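Need tokens for this chain, all 246 residues.
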Amino acid sequence: MPIYVVLKEFTNNLTSNMNRAEVIKQLYNLGYVRIHRNVLINQRKNMVDDSRVFKGLPLIFLRTSRERHKLSINEESNTFDLGSLILVAYRLPRDEKIQKATNRLFRRAPCFKLARSVYIFPQIRYDNYYDSVLLWPSSLLRKMIIFGVQTTYIPKVTISNTSLTKSLIEELKENLSKRTQRVLDDCVKLKQLPKSQLNKKSSECRIEIRVIRHLLLFYEKELNINHKNAHNGLRKALRSLSIVRK
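Here are the structure tokens for all 246 residues:
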């Protein structure tokens, strides 16, 4: 079964001295082929754990499997296993409108960002979310294809170097915290706006609050990831909205 590797952002605080170009060259020597700016594939049959070779580097190794693996996340017992996942990678055309539209789509998608234009979704049944404000993988891909975005869709992958899973969850929580704080700040500033701008801006705030709330509920129900601070921030934002409406 194929092995995939995703290249995350290289920073200055890495424990290894290898840079991105050197890492890619070594991956090529091991038989990997690039299929996306940040994704490479190896079709070899032997299941060698290449993650050990690149320990300390921002690489995420993904294995494909015929079976679906259940996720197991329990922050209290320090268990972080996302189970089977769907890898979605894409290449955007040089069109600013399409780029902005695609970014807006992913703000409504319950997923983890691995690298630029590379995301993973939990491999679950999304039937209960068809009428939701959220976008599940197949609906997201359909919209991206309509936009003319070149996409790669790989189901049933699991993370090999699971030690990185906890950091992915922390990054997800941090992103939700930032979004919640931004919409809270926007709601607080509403009373300073002229009436000509108030309706439009308050509508945008309500939509963003609704999306974040649905994302939080999804992560809690499906992944057992709780974020009390974000919920508290949304309640404060709603109170600010209600005051402005009065």
